Amino acid sequence: MGIDTLCSCENCELRELFFSSVERDELFSLCTQRTEVNYFPGDFIIQQEMPIEEFIYLKSGLVKLFISEENGKEQILTIARPFNFVSMLSIFSSNKYNYSVQALEQSVTCSIPMNQINQLVESNGRFARSVLGKMSQVSDKIIKEMMEIRKRHLRGRIAYILLYYSKELAHSPEFELALSRKEIAEYIGMTTENVIRSLTEFRKSKIIKIFGKVIEIIDMQRLEQISKFG
Amino acid sequence: MGIDTLCSCENCELRELFFSSVERDELFSLCTQRTEVNYFPGDFIIQQEMPIEEFIYLKSGLVKLFISEENGKEQILTIARPFNFVSMLSIFSSNKYNYSVQALEQSVTCSIPMNQINQLVESNGRFARSVLGKMSQVSDKIIKEMMEIRKRHLRGRIAYILLYYSKELAHSPEFELALSRKEIAEYIGMTTENVIRSLTEFRKSKIIKIFGKVIEIIDMQRLEQISKFG
DNA sequence: CGCGGCTTTGATGTTCATCAAGTAAAGTGG
DNA sequence: CCACTTTACTTGATGAACATCAAAGCCGCG
To answer: Is A69 close to B151, i.e. CB distance below 8 A?
Structure first.
């Protein structure tokens, strides 16, 4: 068995992104310590308040980041696919998670002990630089998205979310929403009832079609207008 | 003249935070390339869309981070004092600024060419680690704050902002708001008129006193209740 | 089968934005 | 320094946007 096959990380599609700056022997060391986990929809990947012991990244799937309030309500920060990950946010500044991460679709994560990552950051400047870039990008994206949502009214927020989901997450005008109506509400900071009313209105105006969780955007242009001007 | 006095950075009160991991000769090199700038209230420190050429940190003062919309409206991301800085957000992932920074009080910044910082990140692991920690902390804080604001109604948002300003920024129950009413509105995503109405209501309920820009919190407990329960 | 959670619709009242109008404050040019 | 302009601040009235409450249908799961 050649060294090429000793470690599957060499073929990981995320290697370029996360570890392009890592030398062969460092990669091997990481690889032997990594843990791959499979999650089904609804499974918790990260629990708020738990100690951060690993650097976790998403290999495939779709997840939601959220925080739970004392009153039982939840607020969704963002929805993320691979490459926009996410265990990034607090791991270098806190020793416990400030939010939870839950799988929306079947997902696979890969974890590396945090001390390995810290060691690598300190010993490999190019790696440090690339982690900085990624982290900067991830938090920038979340903040920008929150501002985009905040400046819109209900209808505009729903339109924005539908377009975002279609273009960035599903890459198709027809898609199965992995979010419940309630989760959409938690995402955009409105009530479930009003989310539904907005969707119904879009359906009646023939802008979208609704088949339960499956949404089809019929009139992309009008949806974009609503997203822009309310 | 001894080496100790060759470079004032050695005595900079921010040295510990930003450069504790930097060796003496590296510090000297940074120091000779740094630029210190003084800003008056209203002055722009960073202009949205401008190319990022320097790593800028706040030595003293108070600033607002905001983005300008096409329609001329502005949205404030956060208000920051030193240590919670801020030129951090996109500098490692973008080559231009995504937001503007303007001085609210008289402020002093210190700038270091970006290539110096990048070089240092790549050559000094401990420095890289400390920048990662700081960046993580800064973006975490902004996101958390936006969630706190989002979950409240008008009255709660105003109460939250007043308490935040009093406790985190002014460190006193009586303080001079560096923000205009309009800026408060841009900060919490409401209209100027409703910000004023809320302040007036608090004044009439004897929760605060208002002398133009100077606010005095009289009934801290009730303000905290309003912040918590609306 | 029945229970609980999600979804949907309607009715109602609260919260909020918008418009209008007036006052105060602050900057500008002669 | 004063008239002038502009910008910030303030209050009220109105209607639109939104939350809340209530009730009923639906679906999955034990």
So the answer is: yes
